Amino acid sequence: MKKPQIVEKTAADRMRRLLGMAEERAKEGTAASMALEKRYVTIARRISTHYKVRIPDGLKHRICKNCGSFLVPGVNCKVRLSSSHGYLVYLCECGAETHSFYKPARGKSSKGRA
Ligand SMILES: [Zn+2]
Q: How many domains are contained in the chain?
């Protein structure tokens, strides 16, 4: 049975809002705000799994799978480019890495290329 569209939209809106609040708390950098940040990320993940809705685009790769913190470059993570492999590497404070591709994968459509 397909989910009603209102459920998907509401869940996505709540996740976006929670992750926005998590980003604000991460930028504050105090111990209390870090605990709140992780709590917001946990709630957003629970919404995603409960309603079977994907975490909105552009936000999923900013959550550390190891410690659950919201990654803000320059605050709690480093961003590196792996030019030979064509991906971004987000290095969290806990030591975990998240990879995000910025080049189209090989074998896909090559429109605009010679
Ligand atoms: Zn981490």
A: 1
